[in-house]
Amino acid sequence: MMKKILKYLIPFLLCVIVAVSILAGKGSFAKSGARLMSDLCDAFFVPGIIMTCFGLLIFGTNGGAFDMLSFGVLKFFDLFKRDLTKVKYRTFYDYRQAQKEKKRSFWSFIIVGLVFVAVSAVFFILYKQY
Least crowded by CB within 10 Å, which of 21, 93, 111, 112? Predict the structure, then answer.
């Protein structure tokens, strides 16, 4: 149960830190009215989009979209090893089979990011009503 809470709490806290730093950078704590709503919209939109895109990037990685690229980089660095018999993956097939077992969770990033984007939309609507 605690592991599931931490899975959502860590991305949430990262988004809050980014949002507060954006608000502090814009000097929003001294503003009111439409300017404050505009700044709140920006402060929630930026970390929300970043977190959502990060979750989608993990989704693509789980599907194997970057396996050939990462295998190529791994093989490039294997060229500089002294003992080539200690290479971890000899073929792309071996690498691909090992990667299939390493699935990472991505829904927490996407959900937290979309919640921040939704809150940003609320602040945008409030901004347009001023």
Answer: 93
